[in-house]
Amino acid sequence: MTIDAIQQRLLATPGEFWRSLERDFFLNPWFYGVIVSVLLLERWMPADPRQSLLSKGTRQDLVWVPFKLLLHAGFFPAVVVLLTLGYHRYLGFLTIEAVKDWPVPLRFGLGWLAGDFLFWLIHLIRHKVGFLWHFHAIHHSQRQLNFFTEYRVHPLDDLWAIAIGAIPVLMLSQATLTVAVIAWIAHWHTRIYHSNIRTHFGPLKYVLVTPQSHRVHHSIEPGHQDKNFGLTFSIWDHLFGTQHRNDDEYPQTGVAGLESPTFLQQLVYPFQKTMPADR
């Protein structure tokens, strides 16, 4: 999708917007094919055998789906355009001009790796800085990981990660489309590794985030805290010592004090935690 096409979509009428949303999501056969495959895998090889396919946690996450679809379809193109324009206006000096003549696949790969590393770093920071953790904790509050848990992310937590993670991609490729494509691929991968599937992807675990490694990241057990921060690639955790080495652990997940919050409670929780207490 070109910048002109994105801008036209931003200016679409409500009817055109909904038709576009239906075409890009609800009528996408790949989406339903992946869902069916994941549901079969969850039934065949569940990480938590006690969890039903339509568990309470899954139903909670399903409430997030239309909300995030509206944000992603209605505002994500605008965010990408604004990020690109803002980068070229204020951070253009960071652009590495030498890579302009490199083959597109090479620039795409380097941009993806650089962006993924920055996402890893941002993810670690969101766990360490109290203010940012309050927003990120909403995602971690899920006690029954499933295909739709990827949608349970506070909008401000989402925006922070996308804005920072796009910088190295723009430094190397200067392509708005590249940012969108990488984000699209990452979303499909994260949907799968949030699912209730008992697998570590075999040898691929040394390169990619897996359902097992990410379950450990979501673990409620103290011994698993601050491990496995990778978004797409696990190489950064292996390099910097934050990878949990045991690949056969499938712990319970969640955040103490955030048991079964409603959708509205999840939206306001970070602001409640960051407001100064009455004296």
Description:
The protein has 279 residues and is mainly α. It has one domain. Helix content is 61%, strand content 0%. The relative contact order is 0.14. Mean pLDDT is 84; it is low at 10-15.
Quote the distance from N terminus to C terminus: 53 Å
Radius of gyration: 19 Å
SSE ordering: HHHHHHHHHHH
Helix residue percentage: 55-70%
Largest sheet: none
Q: What is the overall silhouette?
A: globular
Tally the helices: 11
Structural class: mainly alpha
**Care to count the β-strands?**
0
What's the overall average pLDDT, rounded?
84
Number of domains as seen in the coordinates: 1
Low-confidence stretches: 10-15
In terms of DSSP E residues, the strand content is: under 5%
Please summarize what this structure is.
The chain is mainly alpha-helical and 279 residues long. The chain is built from 11 helices and no strands. The protein has one domain.
Lay out the secondary structure.
Elements: H1 3-10, H2 14-26, H3 29-44, H4 56-90, H5 104-128, H6 130-140, H7 155-173, H8 176-193, H9 211-217, H10 235-240, H11 263-274
Helix pairs in contact: 1-4, 4-7, 5-6, 5-7, 6-11, 7-8
Structural key phrases:
279 residues; mainly alpha
